[in-house]
Structures are given as structure tokens and as C-alpha cells.
Write a structure and sequence with these properties.
By secondary structure, the protein is α/β, with parallel strands linked by helices. The chain has helices at 5-12, 18-24, 29-39, 49-60, 82-105, 121-131, 183-203, 220-224, 245-258, 282-287, 302-307, 328-337, 363-383, 403-409, 432-446, 487-494, and strands spanning 42-45, 70-74, 113-117, 137-141, 163-167, 211-215, 234-237, 264-268, 290-295, 314-319, 347-351, 389-394, 418-421, 454-459, 464-472, 478-485.
Amino acid sequence: MNIPIEIVDHISTYITERGHQASVALINKAWNSSMTPMLYRDIDISEASHSRARFRETGELPQMCGVTRTLANFHIDSQTESRQRQKWEMTIMRIRRYLQEILDRNGFPRVSKLEMFSPDVEIADILLKGLLPQIRHLQITSPFLKYLEFNTEGNLGFRNLGELELGFSQDIFHSSNEPMFSSAKIARHRVDQHMYSRFNNFFSRCPSLQMLRIDGTKDLHRLLQSVTFPCLRALEIGPVLNHQVDFAIICLNSFLDRHPGVSRLALRNLPNETSHKLRLSGAARRNMREFISSIEEVPSDYSMLLKQFQGLETYRLEHHVIVGEVLHTELLNLLPELQFNSPGIKRLTLPMPSHISGWALTERKMETARVALMEFGQALSEFLPTVEEFGICQTGRFSDLEAADWARSLASHTSLRHIAIKSSFLPINESDGIRQDLINQLALEFAAIPGLESFVFFESMDQQAIKVEIIRIDDGRVEGRETLVEVEQVNKVFFDEFFDSGGW
């Protein structure tokens, strides 16, 4: 009862689970005052009963609208059985009414982020109309995205919008056997033409947009062919259908020419053997600092693409599948193509190709993997000596190697400060009594990399990421300080959330 309020507020920041937040808010007035803004800061509008209850309470308690910062809208799964769907539809109708009443009466003045994943179309329209002018980060993934309206009252546009993520789910996979001039196809074509007009109008009213992500559409070239964003810094593009690749590449070339300030480019499923190539203008080459690519196999012209970049600081190559198809020789050939970036790449992510086939692990196979890893480490040190953060996104059967093997392979790299390996180095079910000894041993082995400050790996039993800080003591001893870290935080630093490549 006598804890100072500033201490209460500090403790509250560590309570992140919804159920715990609700319980703590009932202790007394001080804890209620501290916890309530956190409890209502992020609100889900979904079929979950606790989410509906919290959302309804927000409508009944106007003061709660002022603390909400993020709204997320999830719709019911299409596979849900019919009786449950009927019950959910009644709930949807009530949520529409609650939502419109809240927006008409109080609004959500502090909401700056809106996430919608397969939302109810009417709810999506209500949210867009009521909140879009104030939103800074908008994310929509829906098969009905092309039918949503992005209109609001007034002509001020969407000047606050800085990050936009559009996922046209199911659009890219849609195919039709209808006759070429069927009435259904003609009607759909008219809808699509109207969509392009609406999106172009929407894009033209977003002068502050800095990050644009578009995923899952076969009509990328139509969406981006004539738009310009004066402040754009990051462009992320999802997969493109094979028969639309040339259109998409022509569009991207033109788009990047119009946006020389783009410093981050992320491409998923780079095309191979196309009649048109991705080419960067002089300004785009000089300004590009991050290049992220996710591929299933290395395109034949990939090295020519890499040679265009002149000032990369971050380069990431990832795979959609756990067992990558990058060969050892291909990986070694990629490194020299990256050495001409000045002043040098500092953040690097690569997959490790598998050199061990079959389930039987003979010592001969393990030695083959060790030799390959040493060859890679030597090439990395020779061609990319400036790398400070190195993430290994897939290890294949390299995961059977010991920590000492990894450390030896990178020991000649003097600039490395932090590494993350999607592998486990601790035995399963080790006792708490020997865990610190194991952590100290890992730290001693990785201390062979002279400038290394920390390394991250993952523990296979609970998929928990482990960070170990290397503490070098004056008398030559080495200790390890273990910290559990969120996988999302590890991905943010070493990998890339745009690609679901292998997972942890």
C-alpha cells in the first residue's frame, strides 16, 4: 500500500501477460491506475471472448480510449463450423455497432498503429474511415484488400502515414479456367481497374510514407507504375508469379529510378532466366544500404545483381525452406562479389549449405563439414573483413558440429562482435547445477574469435533464444553471462522478419 507510485509504474512494465495485468489492476487504486493504460494499450478485435470483453469495456469507459495505441482486427477462420460461425456473426454485428459508437463519441486519439488480418470488411471500412488520417503504421492482410475503401472526409490526405504493409492474400495464387471473354472475368477486370484507380488515389495522398511492403499480388506493376513517394526509404516486395516477372522487374526498375532515396530493398523469390534484369540507376546504387533477398535457388545472374551495389552496410540472404539449395561453391563465389561495397558490409546473414547426406553421421562426413566450414570462414575473413554482426539463418547438418568448430572457422575474423547461429549447443535436459559450467565452456570456445562480445543460439527444447556475453578476465580466464532473449528481438538484429525462412 505504501510503495511509491514511480516504483509501481516501473514494476508494471515487467507484467506483460493479459491475465496477469487484469489481476494486478484489481489490487488497489494505485496499481489500477498504473496497469490500466497497459491493459488497454493494445486491443484485439477478434472472436476471443476476452478480446471482445476488453473491447466492449473500452466503449463503455471513454477514458480508456485515450490510452489505446494499437488496434488489431482478426476475423474468424473460414474453416470454423457453421453453428459457431452464426454465433460469431452476431458478435460481429455488435462489434460494428460498438466500434462506430466509440469513433463517433470519443475516437481513439492516441492510436497510431492499425493491424488488420483477414478482417470483416465492414469493420475494416469503419476503422479506415475513422482512423486512417492519424495512423502512422498500417498493416492489412486480406483476400478482400482490393475491395476496401481508403476514403476519408476532408482533403488533408494521410500525412501521418509512415509505414504501409499490404498483403493481398490468395490473390497471387488465384487461377481461373473461365473463357477469356466470360461475363465473370469481364466484371472482375472492371473491379480490378477500379482497384488500381483507388490505390493510386490513396498512394498519392501519402506524402510522408517511408516504408512500403507489398506481398501476394500478381499486379505489382499496375500498383506502382505511376506513383511517387517523396520520403520513401524502404521497399519490400513479396513473391511474383512467373508469367508476371518481366512486368514486375520493369516496374521495379522504373520505381527505383523515381525513388533514389530508397536505402533498404527486400525482394522475395528473385526470378531466374528472365528477359529483363533488375538494374539500379547511379543514384540508387550509391544510396542503397540494405539488400535483403530470400530465394529458393541462386539465380544465374545473381552475381551481376550484387555487383551493382556500391555502399551496402547490410546484406542478408535467406531461404524459404529449411534445407537450402545453395551449394558450398555458390556460397564461396558470392563473398567476393560483396567486397567492393565501401566502406564495407557490417551486418551479414547467410545460410550454410548442407554437406552431409543421409542419417548416418560418420566421422568422415563430419570431417567434410569441418573442412567446408573452415573454407567458408577463411573466405569470409578475406573478402568481408568489416562484418561486425553475423547471422547464420540455416545450418543444415552443420548443426551437428561443435561450438569449437564454429569458433575455429571464424577465429581469423578480427571485426566480428556479435553472431547468432540457428543451432543448439547445450545438451538436452542438463541439470541446473552444471548449466553455468556449460555456458562458461561455450564462452571459452567462442572467445577464440578475438573481438567477439556475444553470441546467440537457440535451445531446442523450448525454442528459447539464448544470448551469452563473453567476459574476458585479466588473468586469461573466460566466463559467460547467459540471458534469455525474445526470438523477435534476435530476428530484428540478425535476421529479417519479412522472410519466414526456417524459423527457430
